[in-house]
Amino acid sequence: MFRIAAALVLMTGLALVTGCSMFGPSYTKPEIALANVEMLKANLWEQSFRLRLRVDNPNDRSLPIRGMQYQIYLNDARLATGVSDQAFTVPAYGSEYFELNVRSNLWRHIGDIVRLVETQQAIDYRIEGHIRTGLFFSPTLTLREKGTLDPADLSL
Q: Which of 120, 150, 142 minimizes the C-alpha distance to 69?
């Protein structure tokens, strides 16, 4: 009897060590794109922006987003780093928009970015971080997206 109990404990431990993926659903990584950047307030020491992001879910079931950790770059200048506990669900094969209010100190780079917008030059962006899905044993998804913004579409 002791051997059976020990074997069950060992098998349970091995299952937990090999990862929790067998206990929770696995997801194909969603696509995340920066849809808009709106400057809310700016002074010498700090700028406030509202970022609008779009999440596209390529999965056949809804994707619950429970929070994220992120870094956002515009033309290799770090715009923001932070976390969000904003929870929402992206429907299966669907899209959902959400907004982040972020604060930054772009004093060194703001002139370059404003010049790019004024001259209507493209602005490259990069979003990196991690997305927490679901509850308990649900996977954390790595976030690495990049793209280009058309300054004519921005609300700066």
A: 142
Q: Which two tokens stand for residue 6?
A: 């020990």
The answer to the question of residue 16 being in a domain is no
Q: How many beta carbons lie within 10 A of that of residue 30, not counting itself?
A: 21
Closest C-alpha among 35, 47, 48, 89 to residue 65: 89
Cα 54-62-134 angle, rounded to 5 deg: 95
CATH of the domain at 85: 2.60.40.1820
* pLDDT tens string 95-120: 999 888 777 776 666 677 677 767 77
Indicate whether 4 belongs to any domain. no
The total number of structural domains in the chain stands at: 1
CA distance 156 to 133: 32
| Six-digit token string for 125 | 């962006």
The sign one gets for the Cα dihedral 49, 52, 55, 56 is: negative
Q: What is the pTM of this model?
A: 0.64
Neighbour-count burial of 127, counting CB atoms closer than 10 A to its CB (0-12 exposed, 13-18 middle, 19+ buried): buried
Distance CA 74, CA 113 (A): 8
Pairing mode of beta strands 95-104, 77-84: unpaired
